[in-house]
Design brief:
heterodimer; A: about 400 residues; alpha/beta; 5-stranded parallel sheet; 3-stranded mixed sheet; about 40% helix; B: about 325 residues; Rossmann fold; 2 domains; 5-stranded mixed sheet; 12 helices; about 35% helix; about 20% strand
């Protein structure tokens, strides 16, 4: 599928027999917007609590493109985990299980939209057209994120939990101040964060701000059920999407393992924002299949049967089942996608291994746009110190 | 050239007005900065003339002020954030120290955050707790931030405009107890010809002891110098103006001449600006020193109740006492 701005067309609509209405959510077995069941059955449309009808009308090629994205993103992520296990990355925050939430929302962004990620949005980064090697530089320790946030409309990763939601809100206020809302080519912002972040003051302040200033933005919460070891119940006693009501804007829960529903809900929310209808909160209900990071051991805090239950809701398996049932793809296609994923992951590995360590004195670069005599003095002193070892057997 | 007599607070107000006039990307944001004009009236009349899109009354949440200002800066704006009082900056500490300060570095220069964070600081106004603190060391300790403080109306007028025009993130400390002190301000002088922002300046030349101060303590030290002169001792008072980075050339030159240095600030002594200055002076002026560098500071206690703050704050007598002690070695 085309990068950046996939079109939604009416051609190739698969006549799915069912429509349904999304109701109020519960913590255990949530009612959520779903357009593709775990078994790969299409639901043609879902009516949200506010009467909005969610549907997608992708071409056959676009359906296959989404599948390709999901597989590639998972494979590259697996490669990064392997690289960490082999000592080539310091740490890795895997997105395993969250591919649909990220590809669905990432592909829903229009070219002009701006995204503010956490440190786990490798799938969104991929959808923004950024070289997937970029975040590996951060986790390898050779830089702190190498892409240009303005060129790709995708800000740097943010490690401090929730801090980026305020940056996103300010950026969205700037869009409104620039008069860039109210039309189809208006701009919107998406702020990514997790279930744990919803307890942070910054996230709650950003909800206040976005509501008060009617900021053109979407709060996209990937509820992957755990903040490292702490389950959702340690962060909230109501479904997270219901928090939005208290701040005065709509909230909706979507099946975050359903790439089609995630796309539909996110696209609608972004379009509402760009047309001046203000912020909304999407809770993408998903599951972190892997560890929090490669330093974590999830067997200490969750049981195997829970993981197995979510395995049955796998985002890629259901897309594959759908493509197969609808005869949109055959074995050759799936093999070709797997082969592309393998090639790209090998290529990624080769390039990671070839990443040079930065020159020591580059640590003095870019402390200030206008420089500082203190930093320059230390750069000079440290350079002389390093030179004192030249020619020695050190 | 037009020279007007303005209070320091009014000089800041006029400086902010100039900045809003000169660059449409400048926005002022903070609590009560709009209709009220700020609790100290520093933004008085600006919302009326520039509108509520450029002078923004924000929700009451300091982290939110700084965090959203970062987003506006990424979008291309130049936010000037007002923190209402020194003691209220701490809810924004993460956004300042981990986000504002590091954005340029982490992006390898691709992002700039040209933000000014104005903080009325220091005591002496008889305020209730959390309204009289001197948090400069926290920010001077943070790479990626620059920290400045003005001490008179002329500098207030010029430095606020220079800080706003700078691409560096700047903590702008305003000596709140000096807001009402008057002085001449050259309101028409071109900014390009002004004394540089990150430069110290000799506020009163002298030959016997170098006294280093900034913000509210510059006036105290100038008064001390007047008193010392009556006793035949000439103090050289240096207004540091820039606290990070420090402008040390003028300091070294002075101390090498006088052989004695006293640092004065309201903030507590422990790991403060005075400690840094003493270390630097010792390193650079070791063979010129006639005595150790001494510090006159607030005490290493929480800021006390208003009825005893005069005991806590360095005053003319404590400065002169330290000057005397430099002759005791």
């Amino acid at each position: 599928m085309a990068k950046g701005d996939p079109g939604v067309t009416t051609r190739g609509r698969r006549a799915a027999p069912r429509s349904k209405k999304a109701g109020a959510g519960k913590a255990g077995d949530p009612e959520l917007v779903q357009l593709l069941t775990p078994e790969g059955e299409r639901i043609e449309s879902v009516t949200g609590p506010d009467g909005t009808e969610y549907r997608v009308d992708f071409t056959d090629e676009e359906y296959r493109g989404l599948y390709r994205d999901l597989v590639l993103v998972r494979k590259l992520d697996a490669e990064a985990t392997a690289l960490q296990r082999q000592g080539e990355l310091g740490i890795w925050a895997s997105l395993l299980g969250q591919e649909a939430a990220q590809v669905g929302s990432g592909r829903a962004l229009r070219t002009q939209d701006m995204a503010f990620p956490t440190y786990r949005e490798h799938g969104v980064l991929y959808c923004r057209g950024i070289d997937p090697i970029m975040p590996l530089g951060l986790f390898r320790g050779v830089d702190q994120g190498g892409w240009d946030p303005n060129e790709f409309k995708f800000n740097m990763y943010t490690i401090v939990i929730g801090a980026q939601t305020l940056h996103a809100t300010g950026y969205a206020m700037g869009i409104a101040m620039d008069g860039k809302t109210g039309t189809d080519d208006g701009e919107a912002v998406i702020a990514y964060f997790g279930d744990g972040a919803t307890s942070q003051g910054d996230v709650n302040e950003s909800f206040v701000w976005a509501g008060v200033f009617n900021a053109p933005m979407v709060f996209f919460c990937q509820n992957n059920q755990y903040a490292i070891s702490e389950p959702l119940e340690r962060q909230t006693r109501i479904p997270l999407y219901q928090r939005a009501a208290g701040f005065g804007f709509p909230g909706i829960r979507v099946d975050g393992n359903d790439v089609l529903a995630t796309y539909a809900v996110t696209r609608q929310a972004l379009d509402n924002a760009r047309h001046g209808q203000g912020p909304s909160l999407i809770e993408a209900y998903t599951y972190r299949m892997g560890a929090h990071t490669t330093s974590d051991d999830p067997t200490r805090y969750r049981i195997a049967s829970e993981v197995e239950a979510w395995q049955a809701k796998d985002p890629i398996a259901r897309m594959k089942a759908f493509l197969t049932k609808q005869q949109l793809a055959d074995a050759d296609f799936f093999a070709e996608v797997d082969e592309q994923a393998r090639r790209e992951s090998v290529h990624l590995r080769e390039r990671v291994l070839a990443m040079p360590n930065p020159e020591p004195t580059t640590l003095f670069d870019h402390v200030y746009p206008n420089g500082s005599p203190l930093v320059e003095q230390q750069r000079e002193q440290f350079s002389r110190y390093l030179e004192s070892f030249e020619g020695s057997a050190h | 050239m037009a020279t007007e007599t303005l209070t320091l607070g009014k000089a800041l107000n006029v400086g902010l007005r100039r900045a809003l006039e000169n660059d449409p990307k400048v926005v002022i944001m903070g609590e009560d900065v709009g209709k009220l004009g700020g609790v100290f009236r520093i933004t008085d009349g600006l919302q009326k003339d520039f509108g509520d899109q450029r002078v923004i009354d924000t929700p009451l949440a300091e982290s939110g002020i700084i965090g959203t200002a970062i987003g506006l800066a990424i979008r291309g704006y130049r936010p000037v954030c007002e923190i209402q009082f020194d003691g209220f900056v701490y809810p924004a500490y993460d956004q300042i120290v981990s986000q504002v300060a590091k954005m340029h570095y982490r992006s390898r220069g691709k992002l700039k955050i040209p933000m000014v964070i104005r903080i009325p600081f220091g005591g002496g106004i008889g305020a209730v707790e959390h309204h009289s603190e001197s948090p400069e060391a926290y920010f001077a300790h943070t790479a990626g931030l620059k920290v400045v403080s003005c001490a008179n109306p002329q500098d207030a007028y010029v430095m606020i405009q220079q800080a706003i025009a700078s691409d560096d993130p700047i903590i702008f400390l305003e000596p709140k107890r000096r807001y009402w002190e008057k002085g001449p301000v050259e309101v028409d002088a071109p900014l390009a010809d002004a004394y540089p922002l990150h430069a110290a300046r000799v506020a009163r030349p002298g030959t016997d002891v170098t006294v280093l101060a900034y913000g509210p303590m510059v006036r105290t030290c100038l008064d001390a110098a007047t008193a010392a002169a009556e006793d035949g001792r000439e103090l050289e008072v240096i207004d540091l103006r820039t606290l990070s980075p420090l402008d040390l050339g003028v300091v070294y030159e002075s101390v090498k001449r006088t052989g004695r240095a006293v640092v004065v600030h309201e903030a507590p002594s422990n790991v403060g600006l005075g400690a840094e200055l003493a270390a630097r002076i010792t390193e650079e002026c070791f063979y010129s020193l006639e005595s150790p560098v001494l510090r006159v500071t607030g005490f290493d206690t929480p800021y006390p109740a208003a009825r005893v703050e005069e005991e806590y704050l360095p005053d003319l007598d404590r400065v002169l006492d330290a000057v005397d002690r430099t002759y005791g070695w």
